[in-house]
Amino acid sequence: MSLRLILAATAWLLFTSIQHSKAQLITAAANPKVDYVVPSRYDLEIPQIDLISGYLGNRYQLNLEKRLLQVDEEGLLAGFENRPGKQRWIGEHIGKYLEAAANTWLVTKDPRLKQQMDRMFHRLLETQDTDGYLGTYLAENRWTSWDVWVHKYDLFGLLAYYGAVGDTKALKAAVQIGDLLCSTFGDTPGKKNILKSGSHVGMAATSVIDPMLDLYRWTGDKKYLEFCRYIIRAYDFEGGPAIVNSILKHKRVDKVANAKAYEMLSNIVGLVKMYRLTGDSQLLQVINYTFDDISANRLFATGTSSDHERFQDNHYLLADTSAHMGEGCVTTTWLQFNTQLFSITGDLKYYNEIEKTIYNHLLGAENPQTGCVSYYTPLIGEKPYRCNITCCLSSVPRGIALIPYLNFGLLNNIPTLLLYEPAQIKENIKTSSQKTIPLGLTLTSEFPRKGTATVQVHIPGSAQFPLQLRVPEWAKNYTATVNGKSYKSGPDQLLKIERQWKDKDKIAVSFDIETEIINGGKTYPNSFTLKRGPQIFALDQSLNPQLQLDKTKFVYPLQDNIKLTDAQDKLPKGWVGTLAYATEIKTADNGQQSLVFVPYADASQTGGFSTLWVPAVSR
What we know:
It is a single chain. Strands 14, 15, 16, 17, 18, 19, 20, 21 and 22 form a nine-stranded mixed beta sheet that branches. Strands 1-6-7-8-13-10-11 form a seven-stranded antiparallel beta sheet. A four-stranded mixed beta sheet has the order 4-5-9-12, with no helix packed on it. The protein contains 17 helices and 22 strands. 37% of the residues lie in helices and 21% in strands. Helix 5 (92-108) packs antiparallel against helix 6 and helix 13 packs antiparallel against helix 14. The protein is of the alpha+beta class and 619 residues long. Among the domains are: 185-285, no CATH class; 410-513, Immunoglobulin-like (Sandwich); 515-617, no CATH class. 50% of the residues are buried. The N and C termini lie far apart (50 Å). The chain is globular. Keywords: Signal. This is Glycoside hydrolase family 127 protein. Residues 429-512 form the Non-reducing end beta-L-arabinofuranosidase-like GH127 middle domain. It comes from Sphingobacterium siyangense.
């Protein structure tokens, strides 16, 4: 049986099974004790059932099968069980794994994953010292180098596991870590300066602000909130990164400390959570300046940032392998940042960045055939996939695990479809008369190949309530039809349909997916690529063996001259993905050449050269 059929069968069985009711999920899991002060516009909680198939679902399942279930368990735990570890940051990986595994298990309920993460969780707990220490350093080297950083990811993993499974031992271990950090670091006599316990102007250590705020939410213990206030004060200590004040002053992230992208963004995600918990308007300014600056000046077309792990000058976006661009940790943290902002505001500009990142650089960083991950994922050159344990190879699966949390949810308290991948969804909603009913949605489509979808509604009897459909920024001629009545919308909008719904009502959705020409900007002014819907395309040498992709130049095509034809038959046996398009383009020497484009996320999966930016001369 094919993977696609297995996914469809699994989705239907889970959709119709009473074993995964909302009541049982709540019984099995825990809930935070502290609500955000700033109201959420989009609920990030997973629905009762949310199973995606199709293009994204296939890659999500491969992340489970090829990456999470294949991790080196002994390697992840060795540094804890036999201190010190062989890498300074070896301890971060178990936390990253537990977070990705817990989020994935909440969706899939895969028993293999449950057994694996339970086993690794219990082995990890056995290594925690009585004072709460859960690192990989010898006693004489505690709180040096990456020790606080390791505890940061311990917290992420333990709290995610607790939230998914409800095992109080996980929360107890996290509390012990939090208490140890609070008693060790601070600006009162006898405590250590956290800036001196981490790299990159202290930003590695101070990024523990993010999960410490989660710990405050889970426990309600205000000492964790006060500890995070201390971290914000510490930014401005002598030799500190001055994250808040630098961004307020310059409105540029490349002017902060040493511009280290991953550690800085991790801190700023923490500042987003601090804003959500306190309503501090100054932090909101910092958050907005950060988004505006990165999205306008430092973002690659595929939804990532960083060059040699740092934010560079405006529009300096070198994309080949030598630039070490698109660090996987930055890709995932940028996704987390936009997810938080979308949750706060419901503003589609943040969701557009989420969609861009998921469909392009996030998936492009994990080989769909092997589950291996590239630390840096270039737009020009061979993607250097590896299967060993290292920083970004643990981060990318965390990002992929978030996908089902972002395709459907309550946006402004209205059930909202955000993506058009095939899916089975079930959630309790309130009707217009405030009655709670179960809502099921079966979404059938061939997206992203075709701009059509059918959404079937499953409810007991009939009920009146609104249902929202996101109209993507790239969609043209969008129409949704229910029982002969059509609803139209322009791009980048939310289309709300409120009516008396009946069981098995269907919404027929159609939209045009046009091909766009994207130019290489200031860094690659004489290059172009193609974009279709949310997907950026690339040329893979293995599909274009007649070309020297790093040398051949083409005549820059006019927008209306690009015509794509399906070239799925050009894909080799074993290729993961079914999207390939051919087009005829003139070469600089007045010849004509057929090119086969594939989504950037699929390119280079068989090894070898691929390029997103195609060299060209103007017409």
